[in-house]
Amino acid sequence: MNGTSLPEIVVRPPGPESRRLAAELRRVESRNVTYVGQDSPIFLKSGAGANLQDVDGNIYIDLCGAFAVAAVGHSNPRVIAAIAKQAARLLHGMGDVYPTEEKVILARELCALAPGSFEKRVYFGVTGADAVEAALKTAVMATGKPGVICFEGAYHGLSYGALEVTDRDHFRAPFAGQLGGFSRRLPYPDETTWLENLAAIERVLGDRTSPAIGAIMVEPIQGRGGDRPAPIAWLRAVRDLCRADGPLLILDEVYSGFGRTGRWFACEHAGIAADLLCVGKGMASGFPISACIGRAEVMDGWPTSTGEAIHTSTFLGSPTGCAAAIASITEIRDRKLVERAESFGPLIEELLRDAQREAPDNVKGVRGRGMMWGIQCCNGEIAMKAAVEALRNGVLVLTSGPLSDVIALSPPLVISDEQLRHAISVLSCSLK
C-alpha cells in the first residue's frame, strides 16, 4: 500500500480480526457509539494517501476522506514530520496563558487565507463543534442579540450550543429539554425555492415576538445534510441581508473548507466573505484542531482578557495541533491541491452521471462541487446496500442526509485519477 494503490481484498470484510475486535469493543464502549452489525465495522490499521488498510490485511480506496479530514492524504509525511518534531520539542502548551509561536504563525495564516480584505482575528478550538460554539458566543457578544437563524438539514456539531442549531430529531429529541431555544429554523433552499426562503428570512428578522436575531448560520454546502450546495444567488442575497445593523453571517465550513470544493473555502464560489467563519477537519488533515475566524470589529465584541478568559479550553491553540495545521496548509498550497480539486470536479460529475444513467431505478441525481459530491438514492436502503457492496469490493463510502439516502464522496485531495475512476466504477456497479 503506497497511497495510490488499487483495492486488494484478501478476506471478505469485516474479516475475523475486525469481528473479534468488534465483540471486545462492544463490551467496553458505550453501545450508542459504534454500530456493530453483520457488515460493520471494519477496524483500520494503517493509511497512506487515498488508501486505508484494515486489521485483516484488506486495502481500500477511501472515498470519504475520513469524514473529509484527510485533505492531504492519510498519514501525510509532511504533517507527520511536523507533529513528531513539535511533540519532541513541546507536546502540549498553555494556550490562553503561556502560548507558543506556532499559535501566532497559524493564526496569522488563517487570517490571510480566510476570504475578505478586512482585518481578522482567530478563536481556536479542538473540534468543529468548538468552532461553532465560539462563533455563537462571539455573535451574542458582538450584537447583544441571542437569536440565530439556522436551517433544516444542518449539522454543526453535537455539543449543546451547536446542537441547538443542528437539525434532525435523532440528535436533538433526547436532549430537547436542555437546549437553549434561541434558534429559528428554516428550510435549506435549492434553485427553485431560494427566493421564497429569502422572504422567510426577512419575515423572521422582522418578527418582534421572538428573540432578536444576532446571526444567520449557514453551511455553503451541507455535509452530513446530504452534500447539498446552497444556490449562489441565495448566498449572495443572505450576505446582503447581513449588513450594517443586521445580523452577522456565520459560515460553517468545517466540512467544505481547505480546498474541498475547488476553492480554499466554498463561500468563494459566491464571492462572499463571512463575519465569522468556522473551520476544522481538513485544516490539519488528521490532528484535532479547529478555529473560528472573524472580522476584527466583530471579534472585538469580546472584552480584553484580564487573566481569566470568558471562553477557553485546556487544549486551545495546542502547539502540536498548530504545527500539524501549518504543515497541512503548506502541503495544500505547495501541491496545488485546491486547483486539483477544482480540475477533478468535472470528471467526478461525469462519472457519477454515468453511474446514474446506469442505475435509473436506484439513483435520483447527483450534486456537488470539486471533491465534495452526493449521490441521491431513491431511499436509504439502496444507499446502505450500495455502501456495503462497495466496501466488499474495496471502496469506502459513507451515507448522509436526514434519511441516510445519499452516498457522500469526499476523497483525499491527493487521490489519483486511476484510483478515482476505479472507485467510482466499483460504486456504479454497487448502485445497480
Structure commentary:
The chain has 432 residues and is of the alpha/beta class. The strands form four sheets. The protein has a seven-stranded mixed sheet, with helices on both faces. Strands 1-2-3-15 form a four-stranded mixed sheet. The protein folds into two domains: 143 residues, Aspartate Aminotransferase, domain 1; 257 residues, Aspartate Aminotransferase, domain 2, CATH 3.40.640. Helix content is 38%, strand content 17%.
TL;DR?
The protein has 432 residues and is α/β, with parallel strands linked by helices. 38% of the residues lie in helices and 17% in strands.
Structural descriptors:
single chain; 432 residues; alpha/beta; Aspartate Aminotransferase, domain 1; Aspartate Aminotransferase, domain 2; four-stranded mixed beta sheet; 17 strands; globular
Which helices and strands, and how do they pair?
Layout: H1 16-28, E1 44-48, E2 51-54, E3 59-62, H2 65-68, H3 77-89, H4 101-113, E4 120-125, H5 128-143, E5 147-151, H6 160-165, H7 169-172, E6 183-186, H8 194-206, E7 213-218, E8 221-222, E9 228-229, H9 232-241, E10 248-252, E11 276-279, E12 290-295, H10 296-299, H11 319-334, H12 337-358, E13 363-369, E14 372-377, H13 380-392, E15 395-396, E16 398-400, E17 406-409, H14 417-431
Parallel strand pairs: 3-15, 5-6, 5-7, 7-10, 10-11
Antiparallel strand pairs: 1-2, 2-3, 4-12, 8-9, 11-12, 13-14, 14-17, 16-17
